[in-house]
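Give me structure tokens for this 219-residue protein.
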Amino acid sequence: MGAVAYTFDVDFIHRNPVLNSAVMSEWESSAKATTLGKVYSSWASFSRDHPRAAHWIALDAFFDDEVPLPLKVRTIAATGRRCIVLGRVSSAQRSALGAEGAVAILDDDSTPAEIPRRIEEVVVGSASTLPAKPGVGTRLTDREIQVLELFAQRRALTASSLASALGLRTTTVRGHLFRGRRKLAAAGLKCATRGELANALQEIGYSHTDAQWHASGRW
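Here you go.
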């Protein structure tokens, strides 16, 4: 890539602590235009430092927590930071994540030695970036995305259990479900049942399939 006058800091957020350690050891020898910032193994730990985060964020696509991937990307992009998603996702998810502000998606075939180089290619502009075309999901509020996704998951959480987990009133959760479903239905998507809602969220790229979770070693 030639000599560079300055470097870009990149924070790395991945659920796999072994991969995190390997990337940390490989970064200095693999990258020239980027410097590894902080490394996190959970979204919660990153969230506590979010106001002080680096300008570039490399984000694991498969955290199994209470914050759906599109909402993580939206949160990062809302503060003007640049998000690179790491993981194999569907074409619908690529479009949805681009709409929410992700600039690139790197599949999961890279070795720890290759990851810093592939991230650097995006940072310095030698890799293609995602188009940011608004879709159905961008009409949903943050809470609607979160509540719809958690409600549709295989854990089959009720509105009351969701409310307890999120620190909300049950009536508030039901309101988010109602308004979110109404927006999906207005776009021609079936979402009356939990199963239909899960399919609708996958169709618009706002949810992983069970097969994706299995492939990532999560479920």
